[in-house]
Amino acid sequence: MVGAQPADYSTVPIVVRPFGEVIRARPEMYFGRCHRADPRLAGAVVDAVVADTLSVPDQEALEVDVVIESDHRFTMTDNCVNEMGKLDAYGLPLNRWALGALLAVSARTWIEIRTTDRHWLQEFAGTTPVEPSREQEPTVRSGTRITCELDRDYFPSTTVLPAAEDLLDARDERVTVMDLRDKRPTRRSSP
């Protein structure tokens, strides 16, 4: 009979793993088909976070700035409009799936959310919040700022973030990349 369960079927062999562990085990499912040993994985992480931001619907005049601060640290700032009713328990935008994947491969991440009337900062060690989110002084600018220190114990020892000109598979005029390792801003434009 099609669809019938075997007589010895049980849930015993099913293992439920935490989200971060699943991502670390199979990064190619989240970061552009780059497996863990692939030296392009660090750049693919940045690409996924930027692409996720660019896919947020109903964002007029969207701008994304990426600053590569060191071989393992970057900051991405956008002007996405974040709505209080569309945030998860950690204060992260529900429509930004890549943030959860980013946390899984990071040693430390700081995510700052600015809405029209609130502004707060959440720090993570991996996928775990370090402390409750901290309210900040309100700002007039909405958006998100993500600073990420990639987990050096996870990535191969030779992995570093790529140069600005080699970053971002999907070229987009709304994205600016600056590599502080060489101090040259790079505006990406559509091919």
Q: What do you see in this structure?
A:
The chain has three helices and nine strands. The chain is α+β, with helices and mostly antiparallel strands. It has helices at residues 19-25, 41-54, 98-104, and strands spanning 64-70, 73-78, 106-114, 119-125, 128-129, 134-135, 143-150, 175-179, 184-187. It has a domain at 41-158: Histidine kinase-like ATPase, C-terminal domain (Heat Shock Protein 90), CATH 3.30.565.10. Strands 1, 2, 3, 4, 5, 6, 7, 8 and 9 form a nine-stranded mixed sheet that branches. Helix content is 15%, strand content 26%. Helix 1 (19-25) packs across helix 3 (98-104) and helix 2 runs antiparallel to helix 3. It is globular, with a radius of gyration of 18 Å.
Q: How is the CATH topology of the domain at 41-158 named?
A: Heat Shock Protein 90
Outline type: globular
Number of strands: 9
How do the SSEs run, as a string of H and E? HHEEHEEEEEEE
Query: What is the CATH architecture annotation of the domain at 41-158?
Result: 2-Layer Sandwich
- The CATH homologous superfamily name of the domain at 41-158 equals Histidine kinase-like ATPase, C-terminal domain
Helix segment count? 3
Strand pairing plus helix content: what structural class?
Answer: alpha+beta
Radius of gyration: 18 Å
Rounded mean pLDDT is: 84
Low-confidence stretches: none
CATH class of the domain at 41-158: Alpha Beta
User: What characterizes the major β-sheet?
Assistant: 9 strands, mixed
Helicity, as a percent range: 10-25%
| Beta-strand residue fraction | 25-35%
InterPro entries: HATPase_C_sf
